[in-house]
Amino acid sequence: MMQSAPRAGAADFDAIIVGAGFSGMYQLHLLRDRLGLKARVLEQGGGVGGTWYWNRYPGARCDSESHSYCFTFSEALYKEWEWSERYPGQAEIMRYMNWVADRLDLKRDIAFDTRVTACRYDAAANLWEVETATGERLTATWLITAVGCLSTANVPKIPGLESFGGRWYHTGQWPHEGVDFTGARVGQIGTGSTGIQAVPVIAAEAKHLTVFQRTANYSVPARNGPLAAEFKAWARENWQAIRETTQSTPNGHPFIIADRSAWDVTEAERQAIYEAAWEKGGLQFRAAFRDLLMDKAANDTAAAFLKAKIREIVQDPETAAKLADIDHPYAAKRPPIDTHYFETFNRDNVTLVDVRANPIERITPEGIRLRDGTEHALDIIVFATGFDAMTGPLLRLNITGRDGLPLAEAWAAGPRTYLGLQVDGFPNLFTITGPGSPSVLCNMPVCIEQHAEWIADCIAHLRGNGIARMEPEPAAVERWVAHVNEAAHATLLPQAGHSWYLGANVPGKPRVFMPYAGGMARYRGICADVAAKGYEGFRLE
Ligand code: N01
């Protein structure tokens, strides 16, 4: 039996929002400026920007095209900002985020350098108590996590790291002052989206770069470059159409997935389509055929094309063979895009080491030693080793729900949510881009806007109807978890067994496919339907 609802005004804030990236900023704007609520954002970093505040590694750039990697809720805001390149770089995104924060006057309600250490639900008072690293305690009716999906760095526990005599960095915790690679022997571990962006930039500066590759990866040229004045004008004039496209595609990107199967065309036509997509560059390569992520044989045709490109670009056949020895379907892991990644292996100062065949045994004071005893002497190690994705950023908030239930315990066998938005046992907690929502399978600002708007509408509904507490029914969570699982298995995504989508990159983490693979447009419809049916599946009281 739950406690009765509290009297109004018992909390310090109507809402506490954790994180000041895209999610937290927009949620604050909606709650404060549209609903007139008292909201506070708590942000660990010294400024806004979320992932872009921390990921300052060489080559950091968004893989979404700039005209769609931004807020689109306001026509005025959209039209006032002008992106300079096809893909926005980290520094430009930070300028954008600060510009938006100033334009919407958000910073006065954001506490920077404020790390949340614990969040406890007090059932008697129906409040969330949030504790920060300085011991401050704040209370709120609603707790909204806006912590991103990829904000908990994963530094693998390789023995001997503490003995390393040089310097080491994780790409997601990059020093603000930058790292000088001049004259240095650099070792980079990891060849995911981050590693593939960093390699060409580090190689151009370092004396020598050794890339330690465990899993070879596909990559398509980004074909980045300055945006032409005509394109900028087109984007400004087509705000509405761009917004409609991103909201109607499965992945929130501003391009349409072709309505043809890889088998609708001849072999020669297929090659020509792939060639054109390669020339165009970017994530659109995935959109060449509608069945690339559904039909393994169709996927094999794309995989073969991309592997042939690697062998064509990389001059040393042995290196090319290692780079093209890819063990998963194309785009079953998040597909990277690059600027001269494979070409970089033609430089004299770059070496590829296959640590699948010959694993890293330990880090020594001088560098990295492999199982066969080979030593690589290094001055700097760069860990491009990814993140404890999706659940990591939530679990480190030490959230406890009703009856003192820790979130870590509730999720011991993997994350369980309803719509990726709420967790049973954790009333009045909303998780923006939480596990079970499309999140990382979507162009992030698109799914963030949908979540923040759904939450704001929901809170307005609760307040308007005198509802003090909202929590999903366990049966609704059960059904959603089953649906998320079913949606993933209708695709080839789970076939990349070592992917972070499955939690497989963190030892001991439960293997559960975390994001919702049913498509953003479909998900948007499901959420709208749930709300239209009086928040079906949620217990409101
Ligand atoms: O991380 P990853 P990331 N020994 O987990 C390797 C987003 N992103 O930071 O595959 C040796 O993908 C690991 O090897 P393996 C994007 O969503 C977006 O690159 O586990 N190697 C892998 O090669 C992306 O997917 C943008 O065998 C080890 C690499 O490290 C997500 O962030 C830009 C190892 C980690 O790859 C994460 O990308 C960049 C070990 N012990 C990133 N441990 C945008 O443009 C790990 N690895 C928006």
TrEMBL record:
UniProtKB keywords: FAD, Flavoprotein, Monooxygenase, NADP, Oxidoreductase
GO terms assigned for molecular function: flavin adenine dinucleotide binding; N,N-dimethylaniline monooxygenase activity; NADP binding
Cofactor or coenzyme needed: FAD
Keyword Coiled coil on entry: no
Keyword Flavoprotein found: yes
SUPFAM superfamilies, per database record: FAD/NAD(P)-binding domain
Protein family according to the UniProt entry: Belongs to the FAD-binding monooxygenase family.
Record PANTHER family: L-ORNITHINE N(5)-MONOOXYGENASE-RELATED
Name of the featured protein: Cyclohexanone monooxygenase
